Each structure stands twice: as C-alpha cells, then as structure tokens.
Amino acid sequence: MSDAHATHIQRLRESLEGVILGKSEVIELLMVGVLAGGHVLLEDVPGVGKTTLAKALSTALGLDFSRVQFTPDLLPGDIVGSQVLNPTDGSFRFLAGPVFTEVLLADEINRASPRTQSALLEAMSEGQVTIEGQTYPLKQPFFVLATQNPVDFQGTYPLPEAQLDRFLIRLSLGYPSHAQELDMLFAHQRSHPLDGMEAVMDRAQLLALQEAVRSIHVTREVGDYLIRLVEGTRRHDKVDLGISPRGSLACFRTAQARALVHGRDYVSPDDLQALAVPTMAHRLILAPESRYGGKTPADIIDEVLADTAVPG
C-alpha cells in the first residue's frame, strides 16, 4: 500500500472517530464497506448515532449527499424521481429524485412500505434506475447508507431478503460505555462535532482507494476457506437458506478492503473471520425452529467458523 493510501485511510478514521466516540470497530467496518464499494445498513435502537455517523462519512469523503426520511406514506417516485408534465406543450420531462447523488442516507428505511423499499433495488445492485422504460445511470461512486430500527419496533416493515442481500455489511452501534457517554456530553456542550467537520479526501482519491482494494492479493487457499464457510451455512440443519454467491463475492471484496485498511497487500483468514458476522449474518434465513429456539444468525455463523478448518 502506498503512503498516500495509508494517509487517506488514517485521516478518514480519525475524522470519523472524532464524531462518534469509542466505536472504532464499527467505524472500521463502515470504512471497509465504503472502500469495497458496497452499501451499509446501520441497525440499532433510536438515538445511538446512526444518522450522525452516516452524515459524518459523507462529509469526510467530500461527496454529494442526499437524505431521504423513510415514512409509511413515501412513494417510489419520491426516491428515484418521476416523469413530470410540462403544461405549456404537453411534453414530459424527467425530474430526478434524491437517489441521483453519491451518498444516499436512507434514514429509518424500514418505516416505509415494502413497495417503496424495493425502489432502491436496481440502484443498489446496478447503479442505475429505470423510469417508464428509460434507464438513467447514477453517479459513481454511489453508496446507500441506510439506518433502521429493530424490526419489533412499532410502525416498521421488515426489509425483504432480496433487499438485505444488497447490503454489503450490516452494523450495530450499541450503547456507549459510561466513560464514552460522559465524553460525549462534553463534546456536544458548545457545538455539534459535525459543525466543524471537513472533507479529508476527494472523489478521485476515494476511487483510487477502491481500485487499490481490487489489487489486494488473495491466495487460492484463502478463497477455498471462504467457500467452505459459505457452504457450511448452506448445509447447516438450522438454516433454510444459506449464503448466496452474491454473499460470497461480498465477503471476498470486504476481506480485500479490510486488508488494505490494516496496511497489508494480502488477505488472511483473520480478515474473513472478522468480517463473517457483519457480511454473512443478515443474509441467512433461519429455520422456524431455530428462530423460536432463540438462535440468531450470528450464532449460526459462529458455529460455522468453529467447525471449518482454517488454512495453515
């Protein structure tokens, strides 16, 4: 990794850690998702900093930013745009929606109806939207940073499996420790940490980092280890649907990104182990007896990790 890449990564980390205190592991995973070119889902209870972290990331990257507050009455056209009638000549013109940006914050995404949630599917998987037969490409890079409340909260709609599979990583911030929350009180005493935040890189530098991720070396042995982990989820007797090939690719790319963040030019099994739960757990569909028995997808991933031999 070049010195310039290392400097940009370190500056991005320090910038985000200055806004969200004591969550270095979550911040690293968010950086991994961005450098891997994927979308990130932040899931947790209200008020722990999900939206703040998303806004801090867009500011630090110096990219165009749009925010959509998802509500039950939100329509697909409110996100992707629509054809608007020009009353003077009877023609139609396309009015672009907020998805035509570089960083889209989909705030509380599971408060909108499944129909509206699905409006993002094409944008997230193909980097384009299609309106009445006309395809419009999105800017590059393009990230969706979505926040959602736990599904048992009133007024939420569970994200469909196809939508969850489009998210490269799912994260949870969790409550801060006593010391971290105390520091937060005084950090916010006079102003919000976002107020003085500045970009630490530009679009070209981010694209260069993403290109560097793809150059990180992965041995066949490590790739074989990844596939054996994936196959372990498909064979597990408590899983109805295991990791898809899209999930395999997601784990592969995020492992490359994590290696770059850690200053290495190769992927190790440790990268896959560290990323297994954030990249795999939300893609599993558990058997009913597992859900009712208190098993979680993270528990299943941990079991698969324990049962899969690590390459020497």
Description of the structure:
- The model has no long low-confidence stretch (mean pLDDT 88).
- The protein has 312 residues and is α/β, with parallel strands linked by helices.
- Helix 10 crosses helix 11 and helix 11 (245-261) packs across helix 12.
- The protein has two domains: 1-186 and 198-214, Rossmann fold; 216-312, Helicase, Ruva Protein, domain 3 (Orthogonal Bundle).
- The radius of gyration is 20 Å and the shape is globular.
- The strands form four sheets. A five-stranded parallel sheet has the order 2-5-8-1-9.
- It has helices at 3-17, 24-35, 50-61, 77-80, 114-117, 121-126, 161-164, 178-187, 203-214, 220-235, 245-261, 269-280, 288-292, 297-307; strands at 39-43, 65-69, 81-85, 92-96, 103-107, 128-131, 134-137, 143-148, 167-171, 239-241, 285-286.
- It has 14 helices and eleven strands.
Write the layout of secondary structure elements.
Blueprint: H1 3-17, H2 24-35, E1 39-43, H3 50-61, E2 65-69, H4 77-80, E3 81-85, E4 92-96, E5 103-107, H5 114-117, H6 121-126, E6 128-131, E7 134-137, E8 143-148, H7 161-164, E9 167-171, H8 178-187, H9 203-214, H10 220-235, E10 239-241, H11 245-261, H12 269-280, E11 285-286, H13 288-292, H14 297-307
Parallel strand pairs: 1-8, 1-9, 2-5, 5-8
Antiparallel strand pairs: 3-4, 6-7, 10-11
Brief rundown of the structure:
The chain has helices at residues 3-17, 24-35, 50-61, 77-80, 114-117, 121-126, 161-164, 178-187, 203-214, 220-235, 245-261, 269-280, 288-292, 297-307, and strands spanning 39-43, 65-69, 81-85, 92-96, 103-107, 128-131, 134-137, 143-148, 167-171, 239-241, 285-286.
